[in-house]
Structure formats: C-alpha cells, structure tokens
User: Fold this.
Amino acid sequence: MPLSAFRLEFSGERADVTASVNDVPVMSTPGGRALDASVAITPWLLTGTNVLALSLTASGTAPPPAAAGSAIFGVRDASVPGSDLIPLTSLVVEPEKDPTVTSAPPGPNMMGSAGPVTARTTSSSLQLRRSVVISAPLPRWAWIDSAVIPADDDTSAELWREYEAIWKLLDERRLGTLPDLLRERTTEYRQALYADADELPSDYGIGALVRSGAALLPLPAEPVFHLFGGGRLAEWTRQDGRPVVTFDEGGVGRFFRFVFRRVGKGWTVTR
Assistant:
C-alpha cells in the first residue's frame, strides 16, 4: 500500500523568497542567494483545506524583474525508496510573467484539489497564495488545535527561559532528559515521515553528536522571536533565522530547531 509523503520542491533567486504551508515558513532564501531544495511538509498539513504561499521580497524596492521563485507541492510513495515526486500543484514566479499564469492551474488532482492563485503586490513584495484540499487521511497534529500564543513581551520572555533551560541541560550533558522533552516531536515526526527509531532517534541525534566531541555554542545575545502557524507555534532564532541551539562539529555548524506550542500554562516542544 502506498505511503503518502508530502514534500515541497523549492527554488528562489535574486530576492528574499519564502515558501509557507499553513502559515509555517518551510524554506527560504535570505539575502537573495540562489537555492534549490526539497523539504518534507507532512508535519504541517491536515486533511482538508491547507494554504500554500510564496513570497518574494526585496529590501526597500519592489522585487527586481529578474527575481524568480517556485514552490511545487507534491507527493511521493514513501514505501518505495527513491520514488519520484508527483507534482500536485505549484506557485511559480518567472521574470516578466504573470504568476497566476505560470503557476499550475486550479482544479482536481489525485489527492484532492487546488484553488485559484491569488497575488498581492506591495511596494516591496509579491505574495502568492492558493488553497490546497487534501483528501488523504492525515493524523491530526497536536499543534493544529493548540491555543493561540499571546504576542507580548512577557510570553516571549517566558519562552526564552525554555531555551535557556534546554541549553543548560545540553551544556551539563543531561542527555537522558531529551527523550521526554522531545516525545511529542519524535512521535509525530515518525508518523509523518514513516521513520523508525534508527532513522529518527528519540534524542534528536544530539546524544551521538555530543559524544563525538562537538562543542555547544553560546546562545545568541540578540535572538529573534517568531509566531507562526496562525499564532499557535512559537520559536526563537538567531538574527539570520537559524536555530539558537547550535553545535560546532569540527568547524561545521550543526543546528537543532525547537518549535513550541502552548499547553495550559506551560510549553511543549512540538517540532
């Protein structure tokens, strides 16, 4: 029986290009550098209506005519190693062309249907959006029904203390606490990616990294707070958007993302 694994094939160049799924940024090209990548997006999807978005932004002026970007939404059979992505719909920006024409047309597909493309242009950006209805049964991820997180200084400071606590336990090598801390993330990612314990360890792979001698870097002095997923998800990052929890492995940065949702008065690592 096929195992439906949803992915986004992304490209962007000559502008800050960001692809989002259900208000969750999944891939970007900060600084306008060229990038082609593929990313798993099942953990951000739900059965029913989803929103795919692509934005191109230039600092201070409208995106240059040469700016380009694309987000191809597709599915592959995870039970067949190396199987090709089957495109379901897309958002595509090409120089000097109408993105509502270059993007895939609306209509039904093998997994549901895609709505029309809407485009919004400001003085410095172009934003494309379209709805994507998925008929395939997907787990109801915990974050989807979480409470909206207040966008205030007290809440962001409270969440920063969670990152400080994670950094401290890593610095003190109390690695045995990681499986409980990451339980929801691990459980849902294994479901979404059809992964086993060897492919997706319960400690996020941090234990093996620490044991290899990688050095934990200090937390950034000026982190940036983000709310997304309709305000149900929160994360602190470095100024360049990279995760705050970073190891140096022989001169190579290893980044570990911790995305939280609100649970009562506390926090849970969900991604």
Q: What stands out?
A: The CA atoms of residues 7 and 40 lie 4 Å apart. The two ends are 27 Å apart (CA to CA).
